[in-house]
Amino acid sequence: MDNLVGWLPKDVLVLHGPTKLLVDKFHWHSPEAGIVASYTTTARDVEDHFGIMRGVDQVESFTQATAGACNVFFECVKQNCTPIELVDKFLPRFISIGQVNFHNYLEKDDTFVNIGNIRFNKFRQVVCDGRIYKVSPALDLDDYFSRFNDERLLTYDLNEDFTLVAELYDITVRAIKKELFDKQQQ
Amino acid sequence: MERQEIIDGLVEILKTVRTINPEKLVGVTEETDFITDLNAPSTEMINIIAKTEQKFGVEFEDDDIDDLGSKVKNVVDLILKAKQKA
Which residues, other chains included, contact A71 with Cβ-Cβ below 8 Å and sequence gap of 6+? Predict the structure, then answer.
């Protein structure tokens, strides 16, 4: 497992059911730096919400795509196992969020990319900052991000037709040992 | 290294944590609880532990942190254990 590109999100974020998984594809991943993953909104994402995707669902998508996926990746490398095997040992938990600024909105069938950079990774806790950008449906994201790198990630060096939707800070996910979680539940 | 020396070092770290009221750092003892007594957010504990590694020149295992309690004495014990291992 060198990085998450080529992995299906459902095989990485295995605890999220199909209607709660808000990541379609990983396009770029530099394990120590960050990750880029896309999602296209469905009718369910905008239902009962004025035809636009809720901000909290954008945050959820970003968290799954960045701190959540990177947390799974780091643990799999450390434990030398696959994400499905990790489920028996650890539960990823979305434990904290900093400031979020929304600049734009997302309608049904809009495609967006979650661009996350890793600010902290230690003791099974991953913290990401990043942005969400709406992208043209015509853009081949795999091809576009094949020329991406750590430097461009940090400066959000993107084409002008990427539309900034949200900025997110201190998105924090921690892998909790399943045995500790079970003990707390008792 | 004496336990009080470690506690003094921990207080220095805690002074740099924005979310902790400096007034609460007067009279920190081994029984002081980071979360209930100092109101440190639980997410901040990991940052405090990371700073502790740097300050005391030790390295902790992930497993040690999973099982770590939230009292000052738990961190003091952890530092001494890591120093013994080194």
Answer: A92, A124, A125, A126, A173, A174, A175
